[in-house]
Amino acid sequence: MDNQRLKEQAHDVDVTVWVGKSGIDAVVDELNDQLSNRNLVKVKFLRAARAGNPTEEKARTLADRVSADLIETRGHTAVMHR
User: Fold this and answer.
1) Of 2, 24, 39, 51, whose CB is crowded by the most CB atoms within 10 A?
2) Strand partners for 77
3) CATH number for the domain that contains residue 70
4) What pLDDT does 3 receive?
């Protein structure tokens, strides 16, 4: 499926994973489980998780950790697909 269609589908998906002060390590297993059950997951990066780094950078790192494709980032929210 192409990225444009995935972005359109992601519009109606709610955020189900929040990355906070515990960082990416704390959500890897949860995100992995969610990606196993559905094809699109939205992840919100809270201020404490960003720590001065761009959301895009954090999102790419997390996507790599769970073997997912980063479809897009908007603001501090990322959409991942597997």
Assistant:
1) 24
2) 44, 74
3) 3.30.110.60
4) 86
